[in-house]
Amino acid sequence: MRPPALGVILAGGLSRRMGGADKPLLTLGGLTLLEHVAQRLAPQCHGLILNANGDPSRFERTSIPIVPDSLSGRPGPLAGILAGLEWAATHCRGIEWIVSVPADTPFIPEDLVLRLQDARREAGLPLACAVSGAQVHHAIGLWPIRLQQDLRRAIAKEGMRRLGGWAALHGYAEAAWSAEPVDPFFNINTPEELAQAKALLRQEKVQ
């Protein structure tokens, strides 16, 4: 039996390439991107939280707890990981892991958490990140709560901003998926990519 994990949906960015639109609330096939991610991630996790900054009332339709960055200045996805680690440490007794997924990846696989845990255990490493094709997706990863203080220090004291850089310091396993016929970690950053995602759904290419 794999140890349970808290799912952390990352939505703390500014969505500049989407013209400032709130990406998690964009619709795809009748659901918001947030709903797509939550539906796929929730059955794999011991609860979900949403890391988002700004006015939380815009997410009033969701029952997922909204957790903003605990560090000011929006230092990027590392701050979202930190917020998730700290929230889990306070609210989730008995949970030792979080799994992070960006809110703009609506096609994440239904075996994501299982395979991240297996990859970490088999490699004997503390972290695991998803891979598709030749690309490592550091924002889609498995993170131990015991590293929360290390991460806070890295961001606040050392100026660390790159997820991959911090993960490499500790060593991470890679859990790989095929990118064909559809990359399960296809992420939506632009209006063109949203249109492409809609076309994939219409063509029923997404599992």
Secondary structure layout:
Layout lengths: L4 E6 L16 E2 L2 E2 H9 L6 E4 L14 E2 L9 H15 L5 E6 L9 H12 L3 E6 L2 E10 L3 H9 L6 H8 L1 E6 L13 H12 L5
Parallel strand pairs: 1-4, 1-6, 4-5, 7-9
Antiparallel strand pairs: 2-3, 6-8, 7-8
Helix pairs in contact: 2-4
Give a short summary of the structure:
The protein has 207 residues and is of the alpha/beta class. It is 31% helix and 21% strand.
Question: What labels describe this entry?
Answer:
GTP-binding, alpha/beta, 9 strands, MobA-like_NTP_Trfase, two-stranded antiparallel ribbon, nucleotidyltransferase, Spore Coat Polysaccharide Biosynthesis Protein SpsA, Chain A, seven-stranded mixed β-sheet, GTP binding, 207 residues
Per the CATH scheme, the topology name is Spore Coat Polysaccharide Biosynthesis Protein SpsA, Chain A
Q: Into which percent range does the helicity of residues fall?
A: 25-40%
Low-confidence stretches: none
Helical/strand content category: alpha/beta
Overall pLDDT confidence: 92
CATH H-tier superfamily: Spore Coat Polysaccharide Biosynthesis Protein SpsA, Chain A
Account of the 3D structure:
The chain has 207 residues and is of the alpha/beta class. The protein has a single domain, classed as Spore Coat Polysaccharide Biosynthesis Protein SpsA, Chain A, CATH 3.90.550.10. The protein contains six helices and nine strands; from the N terminus they run E-E-E-H-E-E-H-E-H-E-E-H-H-E-H. It has helices spanning 33-41, 77-91, 112-123, 148-156, 163-170, 191-202, and strands at 5-10, 27-28, 31-32, 48-51, 66-67, 97-102, 127-132, 135-144, 172-177. The strands form two sheets. A seven-stranded mixed sheet has the order 5-4-1-6-8-7-9, sandwiched between helices. It has a two-stranded antiparallel ribbon with strand order 2-3. Helix 2 (77-91) runs antiparallel to helix 4. The longest helix has 15 residues, at 77-91. The radius of gyration is 16 Å and the shape is globular. The two termini are 25 Å apart. Its main location: cytoplasm. It comes from Microvirga aerilata. GTP binds at residues 10-12, 23, 51, 69, 104.
